[in-house]
Amino acid sequence: MALFGKKETISNALPENLPKHVGFIMDGNGRWAKKRGLPRPFGHKEGAKNFKKIVRYCKDIGLQNISFYAFSTENWQRPDDEIHTIMDLFREYIVDVRNFLSENTRMIFLGDKSAFDEDLQEKMIKLEEDTAHYTEMTLMMAVNYGGRDEIAHAARILAKKAVNGEIHPEDITEQSISNELYTKGIPDVDLVIRPSGELRLSNYLIWQCAYAEYYFTDILWPDFSPAELDKALIDFDNRHRRFGGV
Ligand code: FPP
Question: What is the average pLDDT score of the chain?
Fold first, then answer.
């Protein structure tokens, strides 16, 4: 056990064996706002603030790969004002991310960027390019993301390669599919954290979560604190993972 006693938010003794990839489903923003009699977009603003806090904390404790479900392929069905708020928050945070993260964090967007306004797409691509060489931590944000959509996208790429004669259908393996996913080169998810009391994956990194452990809590995302993350990491450390073996 490594002690992180000094920093204000790190009160617990954290395990040395941290998950290689933690996936966060940032759920409960709408309910957080409703409980306070505020409009739903307000909850997203608080959720985005908390995203920043949790990302910083993840970096402090040495997590290497973290991913956040920020906008799913299904979220376009939400009311316009809510979608606008989330898009504005993306814009703001994409610019801000360089300030709130110290150097050495690589940033990757998971999902189909083509649905976003062109300026936003350019900002995302520029951020990915500018940070591609950083190695301390990889921060992934899933935007216009759906797990099934990602697998279908990979299948289309492999099918095109087969039609062009670059590969044989027999060459298609679990590894070659993984190599065409948005998370290429990133370890599979070890731990999924979903606040807000919902007990489901909601199409998040379904391929990469094949052997993930799950941590659910009733706390709503804007209230999910570093101390809660400590709890999840300690809980993960106590799980016995068999990966299909005995
Ligand atoms: C789920 O809560 C949350 C979302 C669909 C959006 C998440 C977006 C943000 C946190 C803001 C933008 C993010 C960044 C990182 C800049 P919900 O609305 O489904 O909550 P509910 O289940 O209580 O209705």
Answer: 92
Q: Categorise residue 138: left if φ over 0, alpha if ψ from -120 to 50, beta otherwise.
A: beta
Measure 83 CA to ligand 1 centroid, in angstroms: 10
Judge contact between 61 and 17, C-beta under 8 A. Answer: no
12 as an active site residue: the answer is no
With 0-12 / 13-18 / 19 or more C-beta atoms within 10 angstroms meaning exposed / middle / buried, residue 196 is: buried
CA 27 to ligand 1 centroid distance, Å: 6
C-alpha distances in Å from residue 31, one per residue of 38, 160, 197? 9, 44, 11
pTM equals 0.93
* Cα 224 to ligand 1 centroid, rounded to whole Å: 13
Residue 81 appears among annotated catalytic residues = no
Check pLDDT > 90 for residue 196.
yes
Q: From the alpha carbon of 52, which atom of ligand 1 is closest?
A: 15
